[in-house]
Write a structure and sequence with these properties.
By secondary structure, this protein is of the alpha+beta class. It has two domains: about 110 residues, predicted glycosyltransferase like domains (Thrombin, subunit H), CATH 2.40.10.220; about 40 residues. The chain is about 30% helix and about 30% strand. It contains two helices and seven strands, in the order E-E-H-E-E-E-E-E-H. It has a six-stranded antiparallel barrel.
Length: about 160
């Protein structure tokens, strides 16, 4: 699935490889301490309020991540699946390198991932990777993103006919 997402990658030093595992980022955010707003009788207004609440949650998570010292990730064109990701990079990677990929997928709410990946192919500046040390729940979240993006594309194609 082709997409443009915030993503950065770095070569893992040999000393970090043995304990490295892919994971979903900060799900225990300060934001979860606030109660969910109650439903209101006006359905249109209620939907708008929920959308605004979701956007505020996402903004607060981004701010929280930045204040914790996590860098802003550059927008990168990728081809992603639950099994791996292909992206353009100016870094020199070789087949067999183990890298850490940090990325945020635009789910509701956006989800931050720190993935461990094996470089399986390098062509010019394009790097193809396979996710390793990844739980089924992490793969499932990525598969959800791919499914929703494919669905959006199908709906937009159908509407343009």
């Amino acid at each position: 699935m082709d997409a443009k997402i915030p993503l950065s990658a770095r070569l893992l030093p040999d000393r970090e490889i043995p304990g490295a595992v892919s994971r979903v980022g900060d799900s225990d955010s300060v934001i979860t301490e606030f109660p969910i707003p109650p439903d209101i009788p006006n359905k249109v207004l209620n939907d708008w309020m929920k959308m605004i609440n979701a956007k505020l949650d996402a903004l607060l998570k981004v701010h929280s991540r930045q204040s914790e010292g996590l860098p802003s990730l550059p927008m990168t064109s990728v081809n992603i699946s639950a099994g791996g990701v292909r992206f353009r990079s100016t870094s020199d990677y070789d087949q067999g390198d183990i890298i850490e990929i940090k990325m945020t997928l635009p789910l509701e709410p956006p989800v931050f991932f720190s993935m461990i990946a094996d470089v399986i192919r390098v062509d010019a500046y394009t790097v193809a990777t396979k996710f390793i040390n990844t739980s089924e729940s992490v793969r499932s979240k990525i598969a959800d993103f791919v499914f929703h993006r494919e669905r959006e594309i199908m709906i937009s194609k159908r509407e343009s006919m």
